[in-house]
Specification:
alpha+beta; 2 domains; 10 helices; about 15% strand; iron; membrane; sphingolipid metabolism; Delta 8-(E)-sphingolipid desaturase; transmembrane helix
Length: about 280
């Protein structure tokens, strides 16, 4: 038995009821609250796609295995039409968030008010939203309305957005087919390992001979160059396996460099994704 077909109105109703839903390849994916809080990319990366088609973004930042697991959270299917899914406005974009209330249950809170452009021009479309933080702490209210989930007019037509998405998919396929996502361990990271080893060795020899300034200089070079590999590992860009990349990163960053890679990932990756897409 296949998953049921959902209308846009039903998706909106479930979002208003507090569910975190997004569209992935014509399917409605429901994100449990527990995973929203544990998502490596941060909760905002998901909340800003509630009610929207996140297929391109999911493909860009998730492995094939992770995307296959997401299918287990599909609760419905949708018809996207010729130019794709007609997006809803995520509640967080109009200042609405879900938080635990005094009764221990999730409730809607309004953290900010929206200010829209008074004119509808190419540089300042009426769909543009500015959030103004509430003067006091978040106020518990009934929640967003169906009207607040409707997107305003956009300078980019649905046809143009569909063309952009198709162009991205074509480019992604070209990059994949060219093997540019495959790690070159020997020719790529081989010279890096030689360089790191040379800097660390010179630093150790200089220290043993009492040449402290020379030792400090090469030790600094060692730490500086090491961060490039740790950066790649933090983005799962070496083996593409979370456990392996994170363990290697912990050894290099925490034990050799004195920097918590866990802290760096928790701070930088959600911020980077927010900057790229929003």
């Amino acid at each position: 038995m296949g998953i049921p077909l959902w209308t846009r109105e039903k998706v909106a109703a479930r979002i208003l009821a507090g569910e975190n839903l997004f569209i992935l390849r014509d399917q409605v994916i429901r994100i449990p609250q527990s995973w929203l809080e544990a998502h490596p990319g941060g909760a905002l990366a998901i909340l800003h796609f509630v009610g929207r088609d996140a297929t391109d973004e999911v493909s860009a930042f998730h492995s094939d295995d992770t995307q296959r697991r997401m299918k287990g959270y599909a609760v419905g299917a949708v018809e996207v039409g010729e130019y794709g899914w007609e997006p809803l406005l995520p509640p967080v974009m109009s200042g609405w968030v879900r938080k635990l209330g005094k009764d221990g249950k999730q409730h809607w809170y309004n953290e900010a008010s929206t200010v829209h452009s008074s004119v509808n021009t190419e540089k300042s479309p009426s769909s543009q939203i500015l959030l103004v933080k509430a003067d006091s702490s978040a106020i518990e209210l009934e929640g967003p309305t169906l009207e607040s989930l409707q997107c305003g007019p956009s300078p980019l037509s649905a046809k143009t957005q569909a063309q952009h998405s198709a162009a991205y998919k074509a480019l992604h396929k070209r990059v994949t087919d060219a093997g540019l996502f495959k790690t070159r361990y020997i020719t790529g990271y081989g010279p890096e390992v030689v360089r790191y080893t040379m800097f660390a060795t010179i630093a150790a020899i200089a220290y043993s001979k009492g040449w402290l300034v020379t030792s400090a200089f090469f030790l600094g070079l060692f730490w500086h160059q090491l961060t490039f590999t740790v950066h790649d590992l933090g983005h799962l860009g070496v083996t593409h396996v979370w456990t392996i990349d994170r363990l290697v990163a912990i050894f290099l960053a925490d034990f050799l460099g004195g920097l918590s890679v866990g802290w760096w990932v928790d701070v930088s990756i959600p911020l980077l994704k927010f900057i790229i897409f929003f």
